[in-house]
Amino acid sequence: MANDTFLRACRRQPAEYTPVWLMRQAGRYMKEYMAIRGKHTFLEMCKTPELACEVTLQPIRAFALDAAIIFADILLPLEGMGIKLEFAKNEGPQIKNPVRTKKDIDAVRVINPAEDVPYLLKAIKMVKSELNGRVPLIGFSGAPFTLASYIIEGEGSRNYIHTKGLMYSDPGAWKAFMEKIADVITVYLQAQIEAGAEAVQLFDSWVGCLGPDDYREFVLPYTKKVIDSVKNTVPVINFSTNTGTYLDIVKQAGGDVMGVDWRVRLDDAWKTIGHDRAIQGNLDPVVLFAPVEVIRRRVKEVLDMAGGKPGHIFNLGHGIIVGTPVDNVRALVDSVHEFSRR
Ligand code: CP3
Questions:
Q1: Which protein residue has the closest C-alpha to ligand 1 atom 4?
Q2: Which of 44, 62, 328, 333 gets the most CB atoms within 10 Å of its CB?
Q3: How confident is the model at residue 87, as a pLDDT?
Q4: Backbone phi, then psi, for 118, in 5-degree steps?
């Protein structure tokens, strides 16, 4: 591997500088992405390995990033689970048959990745071949709660009434569903690792709608089961948002690297998590809309909170936002390297 700074940081080994990659680094803020997106739907792009490969590589060519992340979505396993997904124009994805009852849960299938997401595994192989060891490739999945809540709600949600409704009123059905989802995520990640992913990230973007006791009871066992089943293969990043008040519980689910958002100071988060784990984060993505001097100062502040200790991977606290100026992304990546070079 020509640039192994990211993998070294995952293992808390020293590197010549702090590695940086950005969640959603392939996306609509880049004109190269929009040129392809103008001719294809999002799902077509995911399901055509040549296109998924190309957009995965676009940010690697444009910026000095230290890792690539495969172009995909957390909802790709749904079709194989028997759940009908539609990406309506200019709206988020919608599920025609959301899972709400015990009967619905029983009908959900555990996927066979080779049959259900062959395009993803092919895209991973193509990207690996194109990258040729330049930087590592990250695979990913939604974490059990975030995936379950999307499938239960059927779309984005403010209050998670159906999800929490099932959890609170029928804990047996919740358990059965989370176990099935954990099995899906496990085989989905294992297939990505077999295809060549050199690290994997679980996105628990929505789990922060729960308090600490509900996280412990209704989420922790399932996320832990997934991480335990892949942890001895490649590094696992356990990313969540809005969990700053109970990172001590989230860390019990495991993960070589804990991904944290900007609602918590990086130094406080690392102290809570413990310095026996690596940490990823955590600049507010909206800082990228500020002038370059402000971005550079805020990058420096995050690096100072990490204190130059091995095991920090620089990232945003969540994905890049559409409309982010490309030159500011370049300024961020370059300043991380400039300020952290040892
Ligand atoms: O770093 C990465 O590149 C990871 C890839 C990734 C995508 N979406 C790509 C994507 C990940 C981890 C997600 C997460 C995701 N996707 C979640 C969890 C919440 C979150 O944001 O972390 C959910 C609920 C989804 C489902 C989904 N996919 C939604 C709600 C949308 C529409 C929102 C939007 O930004 O338009 C998508 C489409 C999607 N997923 C795009 C990308 C790059 C935009 C595609 C396009 O329209 O060109």
A1: 24
A2: 333
A3: 85
A4: -60, -35
Q: CA 8, CA 255: separation in Å to the nearest integer?
A: 15
Confidence class of residue 231 from pLDDT cuts 50, 70 and 90?
Answer: confident
* 28: annotated active-site residue: yes
Q: Ligand 1 pocket: which of 69, 185, 203 to mutate (most atoms <8 Å of CB)?
A: 203
pTM of the model: 0.97
The yes-or-no verdict on residue 90 having pLDDT over 80 is no
pLDDT of residue 157: 94
Q: Find out whether 311 and 277 touch, Cβ atoms under 8 Å.
A: yes
Ligand 1 pocket, residue 33 CB under 6 Å: no
Is position 24 annotated as part of the catalytic site? Answer: yes
Strand locations in 59-143, DSSP E?
68-69, 85-87, 93-95, 137-142
Check if 259 has its Cβ closer than 6 Å to any atom of ligand 1. Answer: no
Residue 92: predicted pLDDT? 84
Question: Which architecture characterizes domain 5-340 according to CATH?
Answer: Alpha-Beta Barrel (3.20)
